[in-house]
Amino acid sequence: MEEYKGTIAEIIFHNNENGYTVAVFETELEAFTVVGNLPAVSVGRHYRLRGEFTMHPTYGEQFAIREFEEELPSTEDGIRDFLASGAMKGVGRKTAAAIVERFGENTLQVIEEDPGQLCGISGIGPKTAAKISEAFKQHREFANITLYLQNYGINSHYAMKLYEVYGADTIQAIEENPYQLVDDIFGIGFKKADKIAEKMGIAHDDRFRIQSGIKFTLTYFAGEGNTFLPQEELCEKTGQMLDLPMQQIEDNIAEMAFTGEIHVENLDNRTVVFLMPYYLAEQNVCKCLSMINDAGLKPVAGKIDSLIQRTERSTGIFLSENQKHAVTSSLKMGVSVITGGPGTGKTTIINTIINILEDSGLKTAIAAPTGRAAKRITETSGHYASTIHRLLEYYFSESENRMRFGRTKENPLEYDAIIVDEASMIDLLLMNGLVSAIRPGTRLIIVGDSDQLPSVGAGNVLRDIIDSEYIYCTKLTEIFRQAKESMIVVNAHRINKGEYPDCNARDKDFFLLHRSREKDMLQTIKELCLTRLPDYYTDLSPVADIQVLTPVRKGLLGSINLNKELQEVLNPPNEALEEKTFGDRTFREGDKVMQIKNNYQMAWKNLEDFTEGEGVFNGDVGFIRKVDREFNELTVVYDEVRYVTYHFNQLEELELAYAVTVHKSQGSEFPIVIMPISWFPPMLATRNLLYTGVTRGKRVVVLVGSQNKLEGMVDNNRIKERYSGLVYRLRRIFSMETAGGDADDFDQMDQ
Ligand SMILES: Nc1ncnc2c1ncn2[C@@H]1O[C@H](COP(=O)(O)OP(=O)(O)OP(=O)(O)O)[C@@H](O)[C@H]1O
């Protein structure tokens, strides 16, 4: 390897995500192009680079960086460039020049050892002086850590993340157990940690490796919706991944169960393994549901029949027998479920229940799993609905350094009734948080459509509760007159029953545009979004109100490609629009984007009423207002008024949202939905998914594809089985209670 000392003179390309850089490097004698991994590089920084010259077929000779070390500059010019390079946040060109003018070549020493001397220069006060000094120390510390991490193939992007979590202890943390990165660093999975461990010389059958592998398999399957895995399957999958015999995995499962890291039990005649949080959550959900269900309730003010009649007279909507039944049972029972498809009257029933509760002086809360669902319920019911997280006062606990619910068993919610809508999206851990915070004596009314796709998170809460038959459930099947006029509603029910939708009825709202080749489908979707639909529905906003949904992420009709193609036509490159490329995505001012993970600490500012708060959630859709390359920031506006600023490092939390997967669209509704109907993997091309996609559209649904494939989706009634223990546990309580047992038997139940 050759070694060169010099300065970065120009950056030709830099990928923030993986640190890949193409730059012009100037040594004392020459200048040449360097290519390779350089973290947070900027013009003016000094490096010692090791590597070799290679010949690129197009770009000619260039230096491939294998190792690098950042050097501190020693000349005045160098120090000035370094300070102004962006390495020290808050120090611009002018301040850098003023500092160097005062301290010359001793500048860095002053900054590090006696920052007080900076006070008075170019408006620097004691606070700023301390900040500059701290930033410099961190810069040095980070440079050392990055250097060390290079040995283990950890690039600058991850080096930065590790440093954010472990700070000065980064090296120690990795040396102790590289597998802990899987738990601590978003984006580092078992495989990456395993590679690092291999480079560190950790043995193939090290306990840390096997146990981390077991947790990884369980976590991976939890990500697919399962709260447990049968032990045999767990051993097989982990054994294959680690290339170790199943017996060794089984021994480690036993050890982990013994130390309480995982839970092993016999469920439905097989040995199954849980990650602790899911086991505890299932147990607790059962216990709480049983207590809430059995408690006495504050009565409503009068006979329920007459109260319903009073509401009917005021609204002019007369409930069907089944709907009345739903209202009555939810007022009488501790816990009840109301389930039904679109247009069956769920909102009408919720409104009736709220009217009766309010007229009876009973305090009621309404909540939904996502912000957009909550907003929609507020609009359709006229009653304020919050997210479940907000109801539970989710917050960041500084002392524990993690998110927590403010409302708990010890500090329960003070309501006589809590209505949760869109319950199909509630996963096990959220349900656990919710029921833990409900005191017995409160009515819990669970409303949802159990035929929608299940929650993204693990568990099968709504279906399990219904299937267990432990909780009283009203199933609504009748579609009401007004809803019958909508072919979207009618077709959704047809699809759900396994009948083919009636497309292209005149003057209606549900279409199938026949295309057989994927290329043509793509072209049609682009035309629909760009001109055909906006030209016809002139009252709608072309980008905000039209949503393309797709079953898949990959492929010509997957969300990734659709986004690229739609961005190209709906918001093409334009000199006036600043953009930022992050990995394989380009974010441009004006783009429609979606937040893809819950970030409860992300700050937002409402520029309409000047309120401020924290929290941007998985599925939130907004528009890029500004890309600021000077500050490495990008601002997104959500709901037209909430401004959120992302550092370029955080861009992995964003995706373009011209097209989103049906899974990501759950709980949201859009005026117009467009969906390609092509060949998709059978696990995805299901009736359930088609039904969920179609029910997202409120005014118009346009399917683009082939009748054949559409019928294939309707026929494919494969509901992906999820491993979930809740249904068995609820059935067990049910049989215990009917056999005269007591809810207190719970604690013994699973021993
Ligand atoms: N008993 C009834 N008599 C007459 N109309 C009714 C009755 N129940 C509901 N409707 C009407 O049917 C339509 C659908 O009802 P609602 O919005 O309550 O259903 P939903 O299940 O909430 O539907 P979605 O899930 O699509 O929002 C509404 O226009 C409502 O006024």
UniProtKB/TrEMBL annotation:
SUPFAM superfamilies assigned to the protein according to its UniProt record, in alphabetical order: P-loop containing nucleoside triphosphate hydrolases, RuvA domain 2-like
Domain AAA+ ATPase: 332-476
Entry superkingdom: Bacteria
Keyword DNA-binding attributed: yes
Xref: Pfam families: AAA_19, HHH_5, HHH_RecD2, OB_YrrC, SH3_13, UvrD_C_2
Residues in Helix-hairpin-helix DNA-binding motif class domain copies: 81-102, 116-135, 180-199
Catalytic activities: ATP + H2O = ADP + phosphate + H(+)
Keyword RNA-binding found: no
Binding residue positions for ATP: 343-347
Family: Belongs to the RecD family. RecD2 subfamily.
Name this protein carries in UniProt: ATP-dependent RecD2 DNA helicase
Organism: Lentihominibacter faecis
Name of the gene: recD2
